[in-house]
Amino acid sequence: MRIRIVDAFTDRPFAGNPAGVLLLDSGPFPDDAWLQQVAAEVNLSETAFAHPLPPGGDADWALRWFTPTAEVSMCGHATLATAHVLHATGAATGTVRFSALCGILTATTQGSGDAFTLDFPTAPLTAVPVPDGVAEALGAEVLSAHDTGPHIGDLLVELTDERTVRALTPDFAGLVAHSERGIIATAAAEDPSRGYDFVSRGFFPRVGIDEDPVTGSAHTALAPFWSPRLGRDELTGLQASARSGLVVTSLRGDRTLLTGGAVTVIDGELLA
Predict the structure, then answer these.
(1) 3-class secondary-structure state, position 156
(2) Can you tell me which family this protein belongs to (predicted)?
(3) What are phi and psi of 85, to 5 degrees?
(4) What domains lie within the chain, and their CATH numbers?
(5) What integer pLDDT is reported at residue 113 of this predicted model?
(6) Would residue 234 show up in a list of annotated catalytic residues for this protein?
(7) Which among 80, 72, 71, 68 has a CA at the least distance from the CA of 21?
(8) Choosing from 41, 46, 162, 211, which is the catalytic residue?
(9) pTM above the 0.90 mark?
(10) What is the rounded CA–CA span in Å between residue 167 and residue 152?
(11) Cα separations in angstroms, 99 against 120, 129, 133, 255
């Protein structure tokens, strides 16, 4: 079985967020325990598994995502990586429709298939009191906190400025209790002329990922957070991890479009 590693939300190798991608035969998914074992072996923030669906339905491919320790209900970068592999192998052209735990998702590309626009549900933000212990675990002042709803299950926290977001050295054990999935820390860009409007970092120790390099799904919450504040529906976010990556967001009411590039870096064979 072929397995590929794709760097997503980047236009060059060894940047963005790497995802494992396995295209399976038609029919039901393999046993959950096997899927989880493969994801643990790949040991990236997510590994995507997809199989083709019968023609004539609402979706073309069924799609699931696993971290090294758990299945997740929404993942942007591994969806982008899967669409990239489908186009690179000739298994799909144009728009690809995926059936996932969070509903029907689409990925559209123009031309070579090196960049895709994902259509995801917008996270329903709800302002909440800053939970006790979050600022201490992050090691920074928190200006506001927002619940992001059931699909991603994160706590979105606004910090004072870009430098603070970049300098975070969290107590990961201290963050585990404060969200269903993880913590998204964000601030406005210090200098938008550098090509991005806001920065973020994502910490997900509860699902086995201390820091995610570039979290596409988090941008379904970052877009409705920043677009009203900055007065534009279309923004560019920089996830300021060590690998770094750019996500272009376009807020469309209850849907958010996420655009980014992808590069295959490993193409091999899974023997187990």
Answers:
(1) strand
(2) Belongs to the PhzF family.
(3) -65, -45
(4) 2-122+258-269 (3.10.310.10), 126-251 (3.10.310.10)
(5) 66
(6) no
(7) 80
(8) 46
(9) yes
(10) 25
(11) 12, 35, 37, 16
